[in-house]
Fold this sequence. Notes:
Helix content: 55-70%
Structural class: alpha+beta
Largest sheet: 3 strands, mixed
Number of strands: 5
Distance between the termini: 29 Å
Strand content: 5-15%
Radius of gyration: 20 Å
Oligomer: single chain
Amino acid sequence: MLIYKRLCLKFLAIIKRNKMRTLFFMVLAAILCTALAKNKRDDNKVKIAVYYEALCPDSKRFIVSQLAPVWRDFRGAVKVKLVPYGKATHDKVDGKWQFTCQHGPDECYGNKVQACILKDRSLQDTDKMELVMCLMGNASPDKSLDTCLGQVNKSNNSDKIKRCASGEQGDALLASYGDKTDLVQRPLSFVPTIIINEKFDQAIQDQAVNDLRGVVCRVAVNKPAIC
């Protein structure tokens, strides 16, 4: 963020002195300053990372009863990162990724569906969150894609997401989420694992599972009014 700030101030000073008032540099300065402003806003948000599994009952309960209401009620005050992988394993055999998931092949596919949703650039972040929350609220998250896409008016994305989840792209995405999960712990001792502000704390984990709202209110730099 410091680099963005220095470059932003430098270009603004140049433009102000009328030494380089070109469209290119004006646009570049605008991009840098926008990035700086976004980073500042993000710094004040409570960062919530959730490492979970598509068919894990505890993951489903947490996302539906804890994460969903917090994300909706604290909109703008939290930044959520979702990592669908959990206690799975991944290894390359003959150049192809092989996965073993805690709740079987259906969970591997369900994880891939959510990985493809989260990496779909045509979807807004709000759509992604609503889709994941919808999927995890269904009895069979691995089989509820079309239902949830219909709820957010994104049914046209169905074929693309299914192709992704069933092919090499889904394999690569899930493997990358596996690598991120393994950096936290291999294997995770509990799913979902919840990390607040990029640092794991067992006491916070224990509270967040049943009272995520309380955790957010306690650690927030700028206390949301809802607290």
